[in-house]
Each structure stands twice: as structure tokens, then as C-alpha cells.
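Re-run with default settings, no changes from the original entry. Doing this only to confirm the output is reproducible before filing.
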Amino acid sequence: MGQCPASRSQDAPRVSDSAPAPRQLDDSLKDAVRQTYAQLQANTPGFKVRRAQSQMIGAVSRALGNSGGVAVVEAPTGVGKSLGYLTAGVPIALASKKTLVISTGTVALQGQLFERDIPNFLKATGLEASVALAKGRTRYLCTRNAAEVQGEGGQEGLFGDEPALFDRPLAPVEIDVATRLTEAWMAGSWDGDLDNAPEAITPNLRATITTPASGCAGRRCAYAANCPVLRARTKVREAQIVVTNHALLLSALNLGDLDAGQPLLAPPGDMLLVLDEGHHIGNVAIGQGAASLALDAMGKRSNRLQVLINAAYRAVDKDTISNQHPNEAIELAARVSKLLKAFRDQVAMGWQPSDETLEPQWRAPEGRLPEAWMPAVHELAEDTRALYNWFHAATSLVAKGKDKDGADAGREKLQRNLGMASEQVQAMHELWSVWKREDAEGAPPMARWITQDRDGDFILHGSPISAAQVLRKLMWDSVDSVVMTSATLTGGGGFQHLAIDNGIPEDAEMIALDSPFDLANQAQLIVPKFPVAPDDRQRHPIEVANYLEKELDWDKGSMVLFTSRWKMEKVASLLPSRRRERVLVQGETAKQKMIDEHLRRTAAGEGSVLFGLNSFGEGLDLPGEACTTVVITQVPFAVPTDPQTATLGEWMERRGHNAFNLIAIPHALRTLTQFAGRLIRTNDDHGRVIILDSRLLTRRYGQRIIDALPPFKRVIG
């Protein structure tokens, strides 16, 4: 914030090197889009022509049909976003021989697109295109790890004789699950995707039977021929339409992030990108630039690296690796361990968290660390860089070498352990680099802070506070063309804040479409004179429970949304038993199981109420009687103590801006609009949205928020 949206970089062309000239939306592409739309109408039962959807198709066509095109489309519920961007994106991608990459903010939408929306679209339009789902490695079964579990009953430690990587040894029942999963994969009855696993998987088992990139031997692995990850990646590279998520997208776009020497999704210059649920991309980008380090835990690991270092020198039979002799590499690891311990002592001298604090946290004002810490920070940044370079070089040498006496399994295991150690050292170096880096003058600083976990370990953190620079580098200046869409992008104040936050190019086309529903007659927005404000921790849950008991229609389907788990569970506990038995509380059982039970009840004419947090307020489709009332217990302002938000606020205030108006209110409006969007899903839906937050009637910003919400009939006070 406080900066202008970026124009596209002139020295970073957004077309692939193989393209003879920038693409243009010519008549043949326009005809292809029109024909696709005509086929969609003709072959989709009950298809309704919607003006807003037609406008969206036009905007998407202009963006994806031209090299360097960018469109930002706010499309409320009912517009038909997925059909809108598929109608334009698929024929343009096929004609241009580009890859259409659709990235989502949630796993639920990713699955819906891949399993339902895209197959139905292709069937209706008659278009032929290969489609693949792109997920991270740790969402797939690692057949090598699963075999080791079955053969050894557990996972060997990272450094030979050291304790296991995971929290605890696997229980016999977990080993049995791993066996059945492997059998299902080998029999072809399951694709190895753990999100669709035929067995319940504990977190400990999941960690054991998956492998991150750093621990994967790739084609050298003895199990490569039967690897779910490699098979899925091959499909992704060959696909014309790829469905992925924002985190994997940005990881794939990151410089040097290749998979087996090839781009994971598609070369950026050959990618037509659609960001569905685009309001999430900024937070994901910030997360991509973040780093963290547990001081005590990493200090112990660094001190144990000598076992692995010695093994690497023996395996490659070389005097030096990364220009270091064995004793020099061992001394480097020992020095890092000592420096980490010394820095831990230095932090403890300056910060002593109270025993009564539930989540201890220290934050550097405006991201500026104490000068006394900087010599150690610089030294750790340099030494961890050297240590990472050594592990990177050692991993590469071991991977290229040949085993003596054909002991491939031993070399493969060493390569895997070196890779995993390399990933840990890289994460450590990234944290010290973030802490060492000088913030550019006039640009938002990095947030830097420390937390303490239950075991007393200090966790160091560093993170960008603005997504703009990350997205300019990874996306706007490299991807051929981009469409960002969501039901909530403007936050009630136009696109300015979104553009600044995300570094959107100045020449982007930005449109906010009208809802196709008659919202003024289909729904009410009710803001009652609530007797207590949400910040009254004791009384607010009591009054919320009283209001729900008296005012909710308990014989129909309703949803009550909270901003904290504690308050949600407290309100549930305060309800009379005859009401409580109709309430399904998030966390008491699996989310999908809750939703299925809610739909069963409401379909049978029974009353049912969902109590949920933010994840229930977005993407959940409960049409008709399944949801006739949405209660929002308070305005979902960002937590003011959040380190990124607090640092950004300080920076903006120092520059003369009102951080609350520019950060808190747009964020709250986007979230509130998502919450309110759970109510009206079809032309036949009716109901009410109730906000139990007295601040909307007593604070100056209240009317601004009320005015910016969807145009339901107002019942205020």
C-alpha cells in the first residue's frame, strides 16, 4: 500500500522465446469463443443467458487472447465464473497452443473444477482437451517410504543412528493402513492422491509415507516406475488444461523451481493463467516470501550434520566438496550450531516472555531489529549460505555417482538424506537472509518477529508485508496473460487497494459485474441493536447464544459464522440442550461429513445449524432450505497483533495514511461479502443475513461497511 500499481516491466517480455510475435485477439479467436458459447447454450439443460456472464467472457477473451493481457473480474455468486473463463480460455488456449492453467485458493474448488465443471464443459461444447490436476508432492503416496514402513515397521533416522524424523514410531494399525494403501495403488483402484485416500490417514502416517522434493531421488529411485508423483507430473506436463492451487503455482513460477529439469506446470511464456478465488493470491504470495526457524531444534540438527558430511565424502571419494575439505565442512556445521545457541542466549537476555502469556510474541518495530543483534545475524547469514552450498553440491555429486558393488539402495538413501538436510539448511539460510536484508527506502519493510512454542524454543520469523513485489517478479512480468476473478475483490472501495496490494499492472482491465439475482427482494441484511460489543469477551457469547435461541428459525437450515474457535465453542455450550442437538460445530467431525449431515437433515425437513469459522464462510454451496439464515457474530477485522498487519500499519501511519481505513476495513468487507454470499445461491433462494456487531451502529466506519455490502433490503437498528 502507499504505492502505485506497477506497469509491466519493459525488459521482461511476457511471451515465450519461441513465439514469433505477440498474440492478438483476432477474428478467428473471437469466432472460436462465440462458437463455444453457442454449443454450451445448446447442450446444457436449463442454461440461462446471463448478461454478467457474457461480459465476463468478453473481458477474459480480451485478456487471454492478447499477449500481456490482464483482466480483473469481480463476479458475484450466480454469474457462473467457471463457465465464463472456460468459454473464453479453452478455445483460445487450444488455438494458440498454450497451456490454460487454472489456479484456485481452496482444495474444494480445485476438485470441483477437475471432477465436474471442466468435464461437463468439454462434453457440452464438444471441445477435446487433456486435463490434469497439479498438486504438491506431499499430497501423494511415496511408494518407497510406504515399502520401508512395511518392511522395517518404522522410518530410519535422518542421520543414521539418530532418532526418527517423525514425532513417534508408527503404530501397528498405521503400518496396516500403509500396506492397504500400497495395495490399492498397485491394484489400480486408487490414484495415490492422499486427498482421496480410501483409508483414514493420521498426520504422523502422512508425514511418513510422503516425501518432499528435497528427499526425492526422482528417476534414480528404485520405485520410480510405480511412483504416483512422477505419474501425476507426467500428466501435468502433457495436459492442455491444468488445474492447480495458488501455492503450487507460485512455487512453480519461482526462479529455478524445476521438476526433473522441466517447468512443473508450463513455461510462464506459454501459460494462459486464470486465478479463481483471486482474492487469496496476495496472502499466498506473502507466504512464499516468508521464512521461519526454530532456534533450539535447528541448533541440535546442525550439530549432528557431521555424520552426514562424513558419509558424503566417503560416497563421492573426493578430497573436497564445494571447495571444502571434510574437516572444514564439519567445522562449518559445528560453528553454525554454536552461533545458533549463542544467538538464542542473546535473545533470551533481551526478551523474557511472561509465563501467563498464551502465545508469546516479540515483534521488531517497523521490522527493524536491535543493532546489537546484527553482527550475529550477518555471520549466520554467511555461514548458513556456505553450508547450504556444500549440501547442494554434495547432493548433486552423490546423485551423479555410481555405487560400488551395486549398492544402489545405500546411495539413494544417502542422496535422500542429503536432500532433506539441504532443504533444512536452505530454510535456515532464508531466515537469516531476510533478517540481514536492508529494506529498500520508500518500500514496505519486511516483518520480523519471534514467538515461543510450548517447549520454550524460540521461533524466528520473517515475512513480506506486501504481495506486490513478489507477484510482479513471479507473475505479472513473466506469465503470458492473466485473469484474476472472485466474488470479492473490491472490498467496497473500487479496485485501487487490490491493485496496490497485488502490484497489478496499470493497463489491466478491471470490471465489477452485477449480481444476476434480485437481491433486494430475495434477502434482508439485519443489523440489530445488539446489547454488547464483540470485544466484551464474557458477555458477547452469552448474548449471541440468547439471540440465536430466540430469533433463529430452528426448523430450517442456518449457518452461524465466528472469527474465533473459542467463541464458537462457548456459544455452542451456552445453548439449551434442545437447541444444541441441532447444531453441528466445526471441528467435532470432518468438514464434509458435517455438511453431508446438514444437507441430509434439511432435505428431510429437519432443522440444522452449522457453526463454522472462516473456512465455512467461503466456497460452501447450500442452496434452498439448506441455508435460509446466515448469522455473522462480528465483523471479521484482521487481528491487529498479527505481525505482518502491525508492521504494515506502522509503516503506513508513518507515511501519513490511516492504516485502519486502508487495511482493516477493505479486508473486513471482502470477508463479510464472502460470508454474505453463502445465502443466495439460486434465483429461488430467500433469506436473511444478520450481523451481531453493535459497532456497525456506533462507530464512524459502520455505515461505510453497511453501504458496501450486497444490496439486500436493509433492516438496521
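The first strand starts at residue 70 and ends at 74. Residues 408-436 form the longest helix (29 residues).
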